[in-house]
Design brief:
mainly alpha; globular; 83% helix; 216 residues
Length: 216
């Protein structure tokens, strides 16, 4: 068993190195940013938000921030676009998990080396699926794993949609608020501390959830 685990672990490490090697992820990142200068940038944001929720590795925040920096007064519009299409993409991920897991979903999960996380998500859904999906929508946790898993383990579609709206809404509109009021000053701060900010907000939400749960 230890030997098997070691082989699996090494395989995942090699897979991860292979994915990040040759600058693949960096090239995707730069390609996403290049759309900020295009006249189709808003459409690009919509497409990016949609596909990231089901299979694409680069989060829409990257393009949202770039667009908001260029046009701060449209920050909330960009947040709305990102939210709307991200939730729609999450629904696509849900149906991939429910109807097309063996043909498409499994390939998506294995391509990014998320097999262990995927199995773990199934266990998490046995507790509070709504809160788990909300956490994934809010934080840098790979959201696509959760949307596909929600379909596989047949979590209700309505809870998925509501949790996604709340989590992704907080995420995108916090970015919009910061860029709208602080402009260029906040770009470096968001880039550097976004993960910590989202995790910190999640901790507050979880504490509030359990506080309400035990007080009622």
């Amino acid at each position: 068993m230890p030997e098997t685990f070691s082989k699996v672990k090494n395989h995942r490490l090699i897979q991860g190195i292979h994915f990040y090697s040759f600058g693949l992820l960096k090239r995707l990142y730069n390609w996403v940013l290049s759309w900020a200068e295009s006249k189709y940038s808003t459409y690009a944001l919509a497409v990016l938000a949609f596909i990231e929720s089901s299979f694409f590795p680069i989060p829409p925040d990257v393009l949202q921030i770039a667009l908001s920096m260029a046009k701060p007064k449209r920050s909330y519009w960009y947040a709305f676009i990102a939210l709307s299409f991200s939730v729609l993409g999450g629904i696509l991920g849900y149906f991939i998990g429910m109807f097309l897991f063996e043909s498409i979903g499994r390939t998506i999960i294995s391509t990014f080396g998320y097999e262990q996380q995927f199995a773990f998500v199934g266990e998490l859904f046995k507790g509070n699926a709504f809160l788990v999906i909300f956490a994934a929508a809010l934080t840098p946790i790979p959201y696509k794993v959760f949307t596909i898993a929600a379909g596989v383990w047949q979590v209700g579609l309505i809870p998925l949609i509501i949790a996604s709206i709340l989590g992704r809404g907080l995420r995108f509109f916090i970015v919009a608020t910061l860029t709208y009021f602080l402009g260029e000053k906040v770009k470096v701060f968001i880039d550097k501390y976004f993960n910590w900010l989202s995790v910190g907000l999640l901790v507050l939400v979880v504490l509030g959830y359990f506080g309400v749960k035990y007080l009622i």
